[in-house]
Each structure stands twice: as structure tokens, then as C-alpha cells.
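Reading a protein record of the kind used here takes little practice once its layout is understood. An example of such a record is reproduced below.
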Amino acid sequence: MLNKNKKPAKNADVVNKNTGEKWYYSDIVKDHFFKPRNLMLKEPKKTQYDAVGIVGSPACGDQMKMWLKIDKKTERVKKLKWRTFGCASAIASTSAFSEMVTENNGMTIEEALKIKPQRIMERLGGLPNRKIHCSVLADKAFRKAVSDYFRKTGQYRRVLTDGSKVIDSKLNITERDIEEAVLEGATNLNAVQKKLKVGIGSPEVIAEVEQLIRFYAEKYYG
């Protein structure tokens, strides 16, 4: 981690006009920012990748979308592509993460899930203190994509719930899943079910799902 109070010999890369705070980016961060690895600018065909994960909202800040190609026999990540609306730190962190996961014939899903933000920052040579949260964005998108893969392959017990309240226990769908579906534009039951299939096999949860949709739609769209 780079200490914002320590002044390297080089000039600051960014200076906050209001506070005078200085940010310094390593050459590795700049390399990943200017030449991001595994970046996907165009929307791929649905059949090209096995899973997709989206976190965040461009209306609220950084957004990350990630696609995975998985070897079904070994569960190694053969391809990882991504796109983000975010800052230089978010771009560099995700670029580095994508390299880590896919190099040397690809990590297994379980190995990739163990990557901590500290490892990403070490690979980048550090990040400014106020940008450490950007190293988490790739991890969150990856976990979303992995959960999508588990759902598409019928491995519902392996879906990652991250401590959020489970609404549909058969499909392991949580409150957070519904919130993110609403953030992605699904503001009624049919649209949410198209994304998540929540409640289709468990009609007893429909009332709670509809209540959550109304709550999040009001929260984000007014």
C-alpha cells in the first residue's frame, strides 16, 4: 500500500485541488490503466461465455461487468473478460486480477475465490489509500459471475450468498441478488424472474420478493 503522507521523489500523479492531498501511482498501475488486459469493449454473444457478473451502478459510481469461460471438467477459468465504468485504480486492479486468474493455464474457481485485495495491490505495487476499495470491485464481480455459473449448471448449493438473507432457498437467491437485479433495470416481478428465476419453484416467497422489488425500486428510482 502506498502511504499518501510519504512523498516519493517523483511528482504526484493527482493532486486534490480542495485538500491538497497527493496521489502517486506505480508504473505497474499506469501500465495496466493505459494497456488494460482482457478488456471487453463490445457485448459478446451469449454463447461465447459460460457466466456473467455485474456489480455496481453507473448512476451510483463504479460499475463492473465480467464474463467467464470455464473448463467444466477442471473448473479452471480459461477466459475472463471485463468492462468497467470506473477510475484508473478500478481499471488497473481488474486488469491485474484478470491476469492473475487466467495465467498459467488458469486458476480453478476455488483458487481464484481465495485472491484477496492485498494480493492485487501487491501485484500493482500499491494503490493510494483512498483507492484501496477499487481492488475489491473485481472480486465482487468475479463472485457474481461464479454464482451465475453455479446457477446455470444447477449447482445451487454452491451459490455464494456472502451473508445476505436467503429469500429462495432452492435456488440460493438472496436479498442482495434482488437488489442488484433492480439496479440493472428489472423493476417488476416478471423482469426479476427472467434474470433470477426466483420464486418459480417456491411460490411461497413471491410476496416477499415483490415487497423487496418495490422497496429497491423506490430506493433507487423514486
About this structure: The chain has two domains: 27-154, 161-221. Residues 73 and 108 are 11 Å apart (CA to CA). The radius of gyration is 19 Å.
